[in-house]
Each structure stands twice: as C-alpha cells, then as structure tokens.
C-alpha cells in the first residue's frame, strides 16, 4: 500500500507555508540564541571590509562584467521554454502524434535559439 | 511494506478526539515544523561529519576522531562554537539585504527538503507538481547568494556571488532538462506518483540508455548546483578568501554552511527519487521472493541509504578533480551538457513512443 498525505492533511499549500515558516524560524531562533550567548565588543576597525588588511579602494557595489548578464539572459530564455515543456511531458502519452508534432516545432525553435547564440559567440567567455 | 501513515493517522485520530479540528491541524503543522527543524539540523550536522571523514579517508588521514566516539560529536561542537561567536556588525553594508540573504538560503533549502519522499507515508508536501515545485524553490537559493555577495560591499563577495549566480542558473537548466526527461517517462510530476511508478522497476533500469545519460548529467549539474568542487569557484579560497560569505561571521556564516550541506542532501535525494525509486525498495518484475525480502527493509532506510551513496559520489568528485576555470565551467554546461541533454530528451521521447522501455 502506497500512501501519501502526512496526518491526512490534504492542503499542500498549508504544508508548504509550514515548511517556509520552519526555515524562517530556524534562522530567527539561531540568531536569537547567538545574540543571547555571544560576546560583544566595539572597535571602529571591526566594521571595515575584509580585504586583506588594507582599506578598500572605491565603491564595491559597482558595475561588473557584462558576461554575467549575457548568461543570465540566455538562462531566462531557455528556462522559460523548459517550463513550457513540462505540461506536455506529463500528458505526452495522451497527446499522441499531434502533441509530438507541435512540441517538435517548439523544440526546433529552442534549438535554433541555442545555435544562434552559439554562432554569435555568446557562449564564449571573453 | 511498512506504512508510516498508520502512525501519523493514529496521532491524527487521537488529537482529533482531544481538540477541535482547526487546533488539530495547527498542532500537526507545529509537529511537522519541529520535525523538519530537527531532521534538517541533525542531517546537516551529520553531513558535515560525513564529508570530513570521507575527505580524510581520500587523503589517507583519520579525520575528526577526538570529540565523541569516532568524532561523531565534532560537528555539534563546531556548531556550538559558531553559536557563541560574535556576529560582527559592519559599517558599509546594505543591512536589510545582508540580513535577508540567510533567510532566503535556508528557507529555500527547507522547502526543497520538505518535498523529498522520506518513506511510505512520510512525505510532508505532496503537490501534484511536486518535482516542479522542488526545482522552483531550490532556485530561490541563488537569490540569497547573490544578495549576500552584493550587500556585503566587498569585491571578493561580489565576484564570488556573480560566479555563483552564473554557475547556478546555467546548471539549473541541465537539472531542469534531465528532470524533464524523467518526467516524460513517469508521466507525472507528483513526487508520490513518481515513486509509485517505480514500484516494479527503478527508472534507471526502466529507461535504460536515456535514463543513464540523464542520471550522469543530473549528477554533474547537481554538483555544480551545490557549489561544490570541482565547481567551487564561487568560494575558491585561494583567490576569493571565502567567496560570497566572506563578510558573514559566527552563526550568520553557519547558515550558508548548513544550507550548502543540506543542498547536497537534497540533490542526492532528488537523484534517488528520480532514478532509484525514492523510498521504493529494489523490485524486479517476476522475482516475487526477492521483492518480498526487499520489502522487509524499512522505506526510510532505503531512501537515506540511496541518498548517502549518491552523496558519497558527489563528495568523491570534490576530492578527486581540480577546480575548473569559469570559461571551462560555462563551456561545459552550454556546449556539452545542454546539447547532450536536448538530444537525450528526444531519445527518451522516441523510446516512450516506440515502447522500448521495460
């Protein structure tokens, strides 16, 4: 016998919120305990950035390499397309040839996107 | 087969006879929360010990062996030490985001943790889109890491978090696609459903070639997803001091540490779920006597055993391979794993259409 639904709770949203609150509670409780038992001392040097002893030069929340953005955009495109494939994957057997053909077109566009990015050199780390 | 729902429904019934319905649900949710909290922390501590012991074995050392029998209490001691360390307040940080980051990282891993099928009747969240939910919540962790690196206002943490972001989003694609391949075979996204589908035979045997390819890709991508070696450039200690959590101190740092080990467990748990039947014992069609003997081993033991063996493989990766460079890392994902994964998906579809699977 395979059974699910712990305690017979059918409302999965409630359980998901429970898990979320558990995570928040873990961090909150641990920080609270640490605040109670950990030592405290004040020193102006302590608040400085940890960069090998010498003072930081300039602002650190600054511009960074554009390559990271490029991969984020590529990821966004492919991830959204993967999300669209999931419902089809579940109903694949029922949808049959029609579903297969339509998803083949979609899949072809996905692959074309990858080929385009590759040929444009977007996948090179420069 | 043992059925844990007997225990939970007994608790449910006895609580219901004592108090009104809404209070019962509240108490049960509290019980689940406390249970999750305990199992989460104990498992993370055990994993720290497990990794240190294995790493020592790979390097011909003894590893922790002073605190408790076989050093079993070492990670408890470490965690306690972290608790009593001062949390340093920095001047130049974005305080709100800096504080928010550990919450995001931990909450994401606890939610992913709650979806895993622990045993027969021992699964906390069983959405009909379970595995999809798991991928969705585990990707919230990336946000936490990016926030941690950005808000610290430190060059090391910024570079570390950006590397981690680029790496985790890239490899999430591979994880998503190999999960998609297995969802094709299972025909359901519900975690309980996927386990039930493997009652006759685990998916790695059922889906043979594409399932094995998907498994290999999943393990590589899972290693990258947990920021572990050979993909540990977000916290490459020789170049970035400690990566995105350089500025965190005491238990604040401990959260990232805990979440990293827990994510290792979640990744291997999902691999066990998708390819090795979750808590399902090893069954072969037709081998009735064998199947019957396998049923005597409790389902929790099956699940934990599979997860530990798969984690062993991931830890083995870490202590065997040298660290990749970022261009190699991204090339591996986008030029090798992604195309192979796409071809593999087509192969899986063909195998299902022509009914070549077992």
What does this entry show, briefly?
The complex is a heterodimer of chains A (126) and B (358). With 126 residues, chain A is mostly helical. Helices cover 63% and strands 0% of the residues of chain A.
Folded structure, characterized:
The complex is a heterodimer of chains A (126) and B (358). By secondary structure, chain A is an all-alpha fold. Chain A has three helices and no strands. Chain A has helices at 12-37, 66-90, 92-119. Chain A starts with 11 loop residues before the first helix and ends in a 7-residue tail after the last helix. The mean pLDDT of chain A is 81. Chain B is 70% helix and 0% strand. Chain B is built from 15 helices and no strands. The radius of gyration of chain B is 21 Å and the shape is globular. The model of chain B has no long low-confidence stretch (mean pLDDT 85). The chains are: A mainly alpha (126), B mainly alpha (358). At the A-B interface, helix 1, helix 2 and helix 3 of A face helix 1, helix 2, helix 4, helix 7 and helix 8 of B.
What is this structure's SSE topology?
The complex is a heterodimer of chains A (126) and B (358).
Chain A: H1 12-37, H2 66-90, H3 92-119
Helix pairs in contact in A: 2-3
Chain B: H1 5-18, H2 21-58, H3 74-83, H4 95-115, H5 130-138, H6 140-151, H7 155-186, H8 191-197, H9 203-206, H10 208-225, H11 237-240, H12 251-275, H13 288-294, H14 299-318, H15 326-353
Helix pairs in contact in B: 2-3, 2-12, 4-5, 4-6, 4-12, 6-7, 7-10, 7-15, 10-12, 10-15, 12-14
Give the tags.
heterodimer, A: 126 residues, mainly alpha, Methane Monooxygenase Hydroxylase, Chain G, domain 1, B: 358 residues, globular
Secondary-structure-based class of chain A equals: mainly alpha
Largest sheet of chain A: none
How many strands, what sense, and barrel or not for the largest sheet of chain B?
A: none
Query: Which structural category do the helix and sheet elements of chain B fall into?
Result: mainly alpha
The SSE string of chain B, one letter per element, is HHHHHHHHHHHHHHH
Overall geometric form of chain A: flat
């Amino acid at each position: 016998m395979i059974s699910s639904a712990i305690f017979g709770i059918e409302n999965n949203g409630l359980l998901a919120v429970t898990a979320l609150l558990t995570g928040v509670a873990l961090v909150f409780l641990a920080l609270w305990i640490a605040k109670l038992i950990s030592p405290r001392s004040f020193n102006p040097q302590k608040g400085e950035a940890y960069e090998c002893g010498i003072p930081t030069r300039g602002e650190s929340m600054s511009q960074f390499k554009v390559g990271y953005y490029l991969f984020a955009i590529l990821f966004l495109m492919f991830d959204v397309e993967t999300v669209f494939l999931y419902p089809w994957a579940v109903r694949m057997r029922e949808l049959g040839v029609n579903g297969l053909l339509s998803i083949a077109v979609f899949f072809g566009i996905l692959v074309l996107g990858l080929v385009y990015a590759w040929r444009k050199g977007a996948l090179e780390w420069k | 087969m043992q059925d844990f729902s007997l225990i939970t429904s007994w608790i449910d019934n006895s609580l219901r006879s004592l108090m009104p319905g809404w209070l019962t649900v509240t108490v049960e949710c509290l019980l689940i929360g406390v249970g999750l909290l305990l199992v989460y922390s104990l498992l993370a501590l055990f994993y720290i010990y497990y990794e240190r012991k294995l790493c020592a074995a790979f390097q011909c050392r003894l590893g922790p062996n002073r605190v408790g029998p076989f050093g079993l209490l070492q990670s408890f001691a470490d965690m306690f030490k972290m608790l009593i360390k001062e949390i340093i307040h920095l001047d130049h940080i974005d305080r709100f985001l800096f504080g928010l980051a550990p919450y995001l990282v931990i909450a994401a891993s606890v939610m992913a943790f709650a979806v895993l099928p622990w045993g027969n009747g021992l699964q906390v969240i069983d959405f009909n889109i379970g595995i999809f939910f798991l991928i969705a919540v585990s990707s919230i962790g990336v946000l936490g890491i990016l926030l941690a690196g950005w808000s610290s206002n430190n060059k090391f943490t910024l570079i570390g978090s950006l590397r981690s972001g680029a790496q985790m989003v890239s490899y999430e694609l591979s994880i998503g696609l190999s999960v998609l391949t297995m969802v094709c075979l299972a025909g359901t996204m519900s975690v309980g459903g996927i386990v039930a589908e493997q009652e006759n035979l685990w998916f790695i045997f059922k889906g043979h070639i594409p399932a094995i390819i998907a498994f290999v890709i999943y393990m590589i991508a899972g290693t990258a997803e947990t920021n572990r070696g050979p993909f540990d450039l977000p916290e490459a200690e020789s170049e970035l001091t400690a990566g995105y959590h350089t500025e965190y101190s005491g238990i604040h740092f401990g959260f990232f540490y805990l979440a990293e080990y827990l994510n290792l467990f979640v990744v291997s748990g999902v691999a066990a779920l998708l390819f090795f039947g979750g808590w399902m014992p090893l069954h072969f069609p037709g081998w009735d006597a064998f199947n019957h003997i396998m049923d005597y081993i409790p389902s929790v033991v099956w699940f934990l055993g599979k997860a530990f063996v798969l984690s062993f493989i991931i830890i083995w990766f870490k202590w065997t391979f040298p660290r990749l460079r970022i261009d190699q890392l991204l090339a591996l994902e986008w030029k090798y794993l992604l195309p192979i994964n796409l071809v593999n998906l087509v192969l899986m579809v063909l195998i299902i259409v022509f009914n070549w699977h077992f």
